Each structure stands twice: as C-alpha cells, then as structure tokens.
Amino acid sequence: MPAILFQTIDWSQVAKTEHKGETGKAFWQTIQSGGLRIRKVTYSENYIADHWCQKGHIVHCLEGEFISELENGQEFKLTKGMTYIVSDDVSSHRSITANGVELLIIDGDFLK
Asked: How far apart are the first and last CA of the chain?
C-alpha cells in the first residue's frame, strides 16, 4: 500500500450514499485511498443489516449503540467510545440498532 500523506477529512464535504438494510437504512460517507477505505456510517432507527458480512473492519462507535451479531449467535453490544476489530473471513457478522448509531469504519487490504 502506498504511503498516505497527511490529510484532514471534513465529513461535511463528503457525499452520502444510501444503502437499504433488511429493515432501516444506512448512510455511508466514504473515502477510498488505494486499498484503504474509511467510512463514516449512520444507521437509522430499527436498522438490521441485509447480509452477513465476511469483510474485516475496525469499527468505532461515535454516537449511540448497536449490536454486532455473529452468525454463530453471539451478540456484542457496543456503545459510544467502544471499538471492535475483525479480520477478513474470520467471523461473519451483521449490525443491528434500535435507536440509530453513528460509526467510523476502517477496512481494507491490511485486514486480509
């Protein structure tokens, strides 16, 4: 991966894209730099992801709370200030929130 030069991100200037969940919606603001992806993601109230994700992530909860559910039935509640980390193809997971949540999600080639 090439070096990342110092930069700032003004999230108010990054376009939002809408992604429907099984229920609710997700709004992504995405910065892509080679094999690195940085997203600020907001899940609406009553959001349930529409798939089991195999990708690795570093997920930091900025506001609110959510459940990271693993396909094996385990559930982990994350609240403001908490982070989870998982590598690609290790634990199938999906996000669920009753009241909405705002997350910072970092993923990419380094998690393979």
From this structure: 13
Residue written as token pair 């376009």: 15
Contact predicate 51/62, CB 8 Å: no
Phi, psi of 56 (to 5 degrees): -85, 150
Q: What are phi and psi of 78, to 5 degrees?
A: -115, 135
> What is the CATH number that goes with domain 17-111?
2.60.120.10
* DSSP 8-state assignment for residue 61: E
- Condensed to tens digits (0 to 9), the pLDDT of residues 55-84 reads 999 999 999 999 999 999 999 999 999 999
Structure tokens at 2: 């090439």
